[in-house]
Amino acid sequence: MPDVNSERPDFFARHRTLLEQAVHATAHRDHWTPYPESPSTSVYGEQAPALGEAAFQEQIGRPFALPDHPGDGRVLAGETSPYGRALGISYPRLDPEQAVATAKAAAGPWRAADPDTRAGVAAEILARLNAATFEIAHAVQHTTGQPFVMAFQAGGPHAQDRGLEAVAYAWAEQKRHPVAARWSKPQRKGGPLELDKTFTPVGRGVAVLIACNTFPTWNGYPGLFASLVTGNPVVVKPHPGAVLPLAITVRIAREVLAEAGFSPDVVLLAAEAPDGRSAATLALHPDVRIVDFTGSTAFGDWLEANARQAAVYTEKAGLNTVVLDSTDDYRGLLGNLAFSLSLYSGQMCTTPQNLLIPREGFATDQGPRTADEFAADLGAALDRLLADPARAVHTLGAIVNDGVRHTLEAAAALGHTVHASTEVAHPEHPKAIVRTPLVARLDANTDRDTYTREWFGPVSFVIGTDSTEHGLAILRECVGAHGALTAAVHSTNETVLAAAREAALDAGVHLSENLTGGVFVNQSAAFSDFHGSAANPAASATLSDPAFVTARFATLQSRRPVAKEPVGV
Fold this sequence. Notes:
Elements: H1 11-28, H2 41-44, H3 48-59, E1 74-76, E2 90-92, H4 96-112, H5 115-131, H6 133-144, H7 148-155, H8 157-174, E3 180-185, E4 193-203, E5 206-210, H9 221-229, E6 234-237, H10 244-259, E7 267-269, H11 278-284, E8 288-294, H12 297-306, E9 311-315, E10 321-324, H13 330-342, E11 354-358, H14 371-385, H15 389-396, H16 402-412, E12 417-419, E13 438-443, H17 448-451, E14 459-465, H18 468-482, E15 487-490, H19 494-507, E16 511-513, H20 547-550, E17 553-561
Parallel strand pairs: 5-6, 5-8, 6-7, 8-9, 10-11, 10-15, 11-14, 13-14, 15-16
Antiparallel strand pairs: 1-2, 3-4, 4-17, 12-13
């Protein structure tokens, strides 16, 4: 057990109300957040923006400070901002064997702590992450290419929401059973059989978090906090292109752990050079019992097939699909879709790729529109949205890496483009690579090989189908076979909407219906929206639900006969 004394803070007492509110929110699914998403000085304080930017700038070109972190020398991850600046930050070099051994050595007292203690520590880490949101926002912006406000929101409060959501599920599930119980079984003759029993949730062992380049905190925090609260030490293995946001996270986590009387090595950073291959080595280590991964389908499938000693939670890629049947708000539909395709240059796992529309067209409040006319109208909506470069860059952000740029080039080479991707000059970052979305016109029957694979980035296809029913059949078949994180439908017909719901249930994907306003298919609200679904191949987990936490621990019991009361003196 940790050496808890009166001088150490009681983080659980400090955050108990917050934790109870979070558990309540997971059950009621209404809007709730404790972390304000506005980067306003009235919320975070007059000095917060300047202090956060200064903290980020201070780390450029220097060794990242992680006091007492184990390792052998330093490693330069090679982080280069998509806005055109090399970060030049080095991190402790920690090889996989040492990482796992160190985490395992630190696990005992953390595992022995009760769920309340662990949840309190996690909530305090999140509180301090929230206080550091401006620093983290700059780190996210300059490792992922997200525009600043998005980096602030998605990398800060929204990621913290997802982390707290995982804390709430992990805390609640460990408290589902009593700590102790007396079992009494009546007998036909004599007294009852009686046993005293205890029930203790125990973590599985070392967890490894393999993070992605585009959303290192939003996708990383759920696994990190779910593993921590269930009693497991965590080795954080960032993507080489986006180490800094998680390095800051690890620094704060280690500070809180030490203050609470635990070894800071309960959370470790395993940064590597761009040509490193430590993720596979870590994932297959026999002492690694939990793996969280966000990234490519190929590596996610490999992890699921090969890391058999661990509980593996993946979020991969898929064919996000929109079925267009009819609408009574055509302008709103176009505006909503244009923004969904443009947000962060389509570099989101939830961005629509396949837009399915009957070739002969669909009914709108502005008259029928054929597939060709819709494709042209969508291109015009994109042009309206992104007409002013100074404003467009705050939606588009920057292209995160060469892989996305090559995808754009390959899509253009198909020869079906109806809205070309164009370059946008960033007024503040002239070296940034900024591109508008490309829209291509395909046919459901002749271009199947093209639209049944993922094109990550600002690439979408308007696909002509035989009918709405044909489009729903494609949704069901393609998502069922290849996976998706999102699906959407537009229809004024309740029968069609019901059929779309059935198709989505069959395919195992979350569905959005008739989004024409300020809610977009590629946005997901913690405590209300489930993100990902183990019901289709794009993911093996949902952020967050009970299944996301229960395999991270086991409830072990002990039992003994009830002590007999002494008889007289």
